[in-house]
Amino acid sequence: MRQSFALCALSASLLLSGCQSVNTTSGGAVGVERKQYMFSMLSTQEVNQMYAQSYQQTVGEASTKGVLDKTSADAKRVKAIADRLIAQAPIFRPDSAQWQWEINLIKSDELNANCGPGGKIIFYTGLIDKLQLTDDEIAAVMGHEIAHALREHGREAMSKAYGIEMAKQGAGALLGLSQDSLALADTVVNYSLTLPNSRSNENEADLIGLELAARAGYNPNAAISLWQKMTQNTGGSPPEFMSTHPASESRIASLQSAIPKVMPLYQQAKKP
After folding, report:
1. pTM for the predicted model, two decimal places
2. 69 near 107, Cβ under 8 Å?
3. pLDDT above 80 (res 18)
4. Poorest-confidence range of 41-50, 91-100, 127-136?
5. Chain-centre distance of CA 211, in angstroms?
6. What is the pLDDT of residues 80-118, one digit of tens each?
7. Which of 77, 101, 122, 140 has the lowest CB atom count within 10 Å?
């Protein structure tokens, strides 16, 4: 047991030593100030380029299958909402004004949406159709997804994966530990350094997304009705793209407590 604790401590130390402490965005009215640790050999540009290739492949496949929607009323609606949200992104992150943003709507029954590194957005028609989303609710979903990209949560997750693997290898070599001890340490390090942050990442995306939507002229109260619809439609379980999120009750409570911070921004904003 003492050896396992030593490994965990060493693993954490090695993980942090290969990372840089950054804060990818300003805190905004909602006050997101958590320091992030990024693997020093994994740059923003590299992650953005990797994701752009994957994104183009997804869009290309959708086009080949005839499910890429560029012309419908919903496609125009989603793009208009995205454009308003993207215009607010530099408030949190000035360099996002130079990102090569893209927005595509895919015809699918999936309850899904995503904004990957560098501002590559995909929205699925199933989310709009099954939940009968209003423009304000679409903005709540999309603002949340854009917030993930602004905070570079994808790069952060990759940094942790790289760091943990390096820490395991380094600690095993230094301490001469067995595979069982390494497996135990892997579990402890994973839970202590990865999983809690995944939940905090979701909370950050909720808060920043709420403010983006409010600044873009979309009613922040829609984040509550969105979650109520999701809970009703999925029997209490979140859809796939929100599978790591906190429980719906705690999430709604967090959003409700943040709405007064952004309501003045919504009231002052030019409405769609």
Report:
1. 0.83
2. yes
3. no
4. 41-50
5. 15
6. 999 999 999 999 999 999 999 999 999 999 999 999 999
7. 77
Cα angle, residue 231 at apex, residues 228 and 237 outer, rounded to 5°: 155
Residue 243 CB-density burial (10 A; 0-12 exposed, 13-18 middle, 19+ buried): exposed
DSSP reduced 3-state for 41: coil
Contact 146, 121 (CB under 8 A): yes
- Nearest Cα to Cα of residue 14 among 168, 197, 158: 168
Q: Assign 25 to helix, strand or coil.
A: coil
Domain locations in the chain as residue ranges: 2-268
Is the distance from CB of 78 to CB of 105 less than 8 angstroms? yes
Question: For the segment 48-73, what is each residue's pLDDT rounded down to a tens digit?
Answer: 999 999 999 999 999 999 999 999 99
- Token pair listed for 13: 């130390």
For the beta sheet containing 113-116, the strands, ordered from the edge strand earlier in sequence to the opposite edge, are 68-69, 102-106, 120-124, 113-116
| Cβ contacts of 163 within 8 Å, gap of 6 or more | 14, 15, 16, 18, 19, 37, 39
Nearest to 111 by CA among 270, 266, 251, 243: 243
Find out whether 80 and 91 touch, Cβ atoms under 8 Å. no
Token pair recorded at residue 43: 């740059």
d(CA 247, CA 206): 13
Q: Tell me the three state secondary structure of residue 67.
A: coil
CA distances from 75 to 100, 142, 164, 199, 259 (A): 19, 14, 41, 31, 28
